[in-house]
Write a structure and sequence with these properties.
Blueprint lengths: L11 E6 L5 H12 L2 E4 H14 L11 H7 L5 E5 L5 E5 L2 E2 L1 H4 L2 H11 L2 H14 L5 E5 L2 H5 L5 E6 L2 H14 L7 H17 L12 E4 L5 H20 L1
Parallel strand pairs: 1-6, 1-7, 2-6, 7-8
Antiparallel strand pairs: 3-4, 4-5
Amino acid sequence: MTTSTDSGKRIVVAIDGFSSSGKSTMARRLAASVGYRYIDSGAMYRAVALYALEHGMATEGGELQREAIVASLPQIKIDFKPQPDGTQHTLLNGADVETEIRQLRVSQVVSPVAAIPQVRRALVSMQQALGRDNGIVMDGRDIGTTVFPDAELKIYVDASAQTRAMRRYNELRAKGDTSVQYDDILANVMERDRIDRTRAESPLRRADDAISLDNSEMTLEEQDAWLLSRFDEVTRKGEQ
């Protein structure tokens, strides 16, 4: 297995794709296996959405006070705290909000919030600062196209909306949320897809030099092996 100590070349790995496509799990597991830092860009947008909800600047129906959200950006500080099990939790102004940002009410707001140009620009700047020293794996919607267009390894992950909705449904149920309904999650996934693909600022699209992966029928172990193989190919090539 390749590790960060096997090679002096540390790269940026950019993993983009639709919501609930499994890209965050892939990114987190790759980072752990090669000794890189994992950065969940989606969690950053979710943190802004949570802030907007908690401060009355957004409703669960998707209504936004856009100017108020933009004006609040200088007061929003986002960071990540490593956990003993190797995962990380998202911090919003110093508070651990990892559980809150994964709730459906945030999912219903995050895409409209993320479509605000000033929000995207502010978080892109934060993300670029976090990855300045390389040795990172970052996932999101525009990592390979906007945040790190020169990333050495770009992956574009896809799966059907139905597959992604079922993954999200099972994840929430496993966390004890028995109120969620599959049809509601599917509708949310499809609406987020529409917004992500059609927004004016950094829409979701496959970078020209990205490697595509449809993981609809893949196990976690198969995903890990596939991604690690692509990582090995790039890092070995960089040593030649």
